[in-house]
Design brief:
26% of the residues lie in helices and 28% in strands. It contains nine helices and 20 strands. The strands form six sheets. It has a six-stranded mixed beta sheet.
Length: 384
């Protein structure tokens, strides 16, 4: 049975269910009120600022009626109703300290074993069936990449992939870029050389968080695409040597690119990026674009390079890679903050023509959330 207990001075209340006790501060509850005077009914945005809430806000009364918690705040003498399930879903009263490098439960890290269940969908299916699109986008959010098959074989077909969830992010390479052998290339990606697994554009701040590569021609021998989960790499490095993990997370590397006229891009970010609470939120690894590393103290530089070397060895380990060959009309998408991609070398005979572009995960996550909400609403309506 759920109970509500108010502390003596009204600074917080506690929801008690069995042995579970979850506390909520008065100021937090007032700030998260969903009444018409506090939130817009149209878009859910706040209509007031924190300065409009009295600093001395306290709870003067709290009652539970079924799944609804009614809270009265002083000195406003304002009563607000809360859905208990929403409160528990958004509870912040936790005592467990997560290990640096933790990931959300919605994230699944992987290695070569994912070869047997590569996230793939049909272009026609995700273009016409919202449920299929939701499943595919959900796989990308979970694994950090996904393939599409049976797409149109036409110039700029990759734009139709981005249209499924968001918008192209234009860069100095344009709205899209061609990936095929060129004379005097401005980037090693435009040669037949193999490329070490890497994240793209680490010299940008922020980096494009999605990359799309679309195959239009593929008769040259070789050139298989490979992906590596940077989060799994970071996890393995941490399990082998926590000091190495920490030194790459604690100090910034420098990345730069000046391969074309009028462009000089630079960024300063760690190779392993953590949120303030230790969540693993990004990996930047690109040997071609790493500049002189100058933000590591002298006494830690040897450790840093040992960690950097080992991270590269883990990335290069075939046990970490998922590889596949793209045929015309096929494409793949990667979360560029997490998944490293690579290409094996290909022969100079035949043709190999890919087109690529960048987009961002916020649009993908938004589209996924909308599809999930629509599905939940449909299921609720059907149940009624």
């Amino acid at each position: 049975m759920l109970e509500c207990i108010l502390n003596e001075d009204g600074v917080y209340l506690t929801l008690v269910e069995g042995e579970t006790r979850t506390r909520f501060h008065a100021i937090w509850l007032r700030d998260n009120a969903w009444d018409a005077a506090t939130r817009s009914a149209d878009n859910g945005q706040r209509l007031i600022a924190l300065r409009d809430i009295p600093q001395e806000t306290r709870i003067s009364a709290a009652t539970l009626t079924g799944a609804t918690l009614s809270v009265t705040f002083a000195p406003e003498d304002k009563t607000v109703d809360y859905d208990v399930s929403w409160l528990l879903q958004n509870a912040y009263d936790r005592t467990d300290a997560a290990q640096p490098g933790w990931t959300k439960s919605s994230v699944e890290t992987w290695d070569a074993e994912l070869m047997s269940r590569i996230p793939v969908a049909s272009f026609a299916s995700v273009s016409t069936d919202p449920a299929a699109l939701k499943t595919w986008l959900g796989q990308i959010a979970r694994f950090g990449f996904g393939k599409l098959a049976d797409g149109p074989i036409e110039d700029l077909a990759l734009m139709k992939v981005v249209d499924l969830f968001g918008y192209v992010r234009e860069t100095n390479y344009g709205r899209h870029f061609e990936v095929r052998t060129e004379v005097n290339p401005t980037n090693l990606a435009y040669t037949g050389l193999g490329l070490q697994a890497h994240t793209d554009n680490p010299y940008r701040d922020p980096v494009p968080t999605i990359q799309v590569l679309y195959c239009l021609e593929s008769s040259a021998a070789g050139g298989e695409n490979m992906v590596v989960d940077g989060f799994r790499v970071a996890e393995q490095l941490r399990s082998e040597n926590e000091d190495w993990f920490n030194v790459l997370a604690r100090h910034c590397a420098h990345f730069e690119y000046a391969g074309s006229d009028g462009v000089m891009l630079r960024s300063r970010r760690p190779m392993i990026e953590l949120a303030p609470d230790g969540e693993l939120i990004g990996v930047r690894f690109n040997n071609r674009s790493t500049a002189a590393i100058t933000d590591v103290p002298f006494d830690e530089m040897a450790t840093y390079y040992a960690a950097y070397r080992r991270m590269g060895e883990i990335i290069d380990d075939p046990a970490m890679e998922v590889s596949f060959r793209l045929e015309p009309g096929e494409s793949f998408l990667v979360d560029n903050r997490r998944v490293l991609h690579a290409r094996k070398g290909y022969a100079g005979t035949g043709t190999r023509w890919f087109q690529g572009c960048y987009a961002d995960m916020d649009s993908l996550n938004s589209k996924l959330a909308v599809l999930e909400a629509a599905e939940d609403a449909a299921q609720l309506e059907a149940a009624e």
